[in-house]
Amino acid sequence: MENQINLTKSHIAAFVFAGGTSRRFGSNKALFEIDRRPMIELVAGNIGAAAERDPIFVGARDDLKIPQGDVLIGKREGTGPLGALCDALELTTSQIVLVAPCDTPFFSSESFSRLVARMNNVAAVVAVDSERQDNAHWLLSCWNADVCRKHLADQYDSGERAIHRAVSGLNVHFESFDERELRNINSRSDIE
Predict the structure, then answer these.
(1) How far is it, in rounded angstroms, from Cα 192 to Cα 190?
(2) Residue-range domains of the chain with CATH
(3) For residue 159, what are the contacts with CB-CB under 8 A and spacing of at least 6?
(4) 8, 27, 30, 61: which could join 40 in a potential S-S bond, CB 3.0 to 4.6 Å?
């Protein structure tokens, strides 16, 4: 059984992962505008509202104009999502860590809050497609830093790079969401 959590907003940290190269998109997708706002700004607003604080941007490239918040370039920079998650968990003193990739502009602040609300007695809550339960979105998730920090770092240090394998042995809850809200934008055709 994982730790029972008495949550207040001060216990929540928010991180937006922005370290990808956007090869399939053709330009920096974080800056692509949806409703006249850069995608990364939409994600930052939604996750920040749920945590009631500005997010920290992990791995943000130099060409990003971060709307607000700090940038973390961690020791595992450039090694993929598990490395970014480990860096975020190590950085924070908050017990609860909300994370999102910069290319998920349709995941609402209410949905981030729903992830947080499901955090009692689990190590992590991960968004999953309600129609395809095998389609977990490991970076649209909420983590108990106290429970996961060492476990995931040990997995990373042993050579693991996939989050879905690194969580082996942890109590993970999968929370269902509509596929439209979970969409990540990897190419311009994903917008249409």
Answers:
(1) 6
(2) 10-180 (3.90.550.10)
(3) none
(4) 30
For residue 158, give the DSSP letter.
Answer: T
Biggest distance spanned by C-alpha atoms of the chain: 45
**Nearest CA among 83, 93, 101, 73 for reference residue 15:** 101
Summarised one tens digit per residue, pLDDT across range 93-134 is 999 999 999 889 999 999 999 999 999 899 999 999 988 878
Strands 172-177 and 124-129, sheet pairing? parallel
Of 146, 156, 173, the residue nearest 92 (C-alpha)? 146
Structure tokens at 163: 């989050």
* Contact yes or no for 126/118 (Cβ under 8 A): no
Q: CB-based burial of residue 110 (10 Å sphere; 0-12 exposed, 13-18 middle, 19+ buried)?
A: exposed
DSSP result, 1-39: -PPP----GGGEEEEEE-----TTTSS-GGG-EETTEEH
How many residues make up the chain in this entry? 192
CA distance 162 to 83: 9
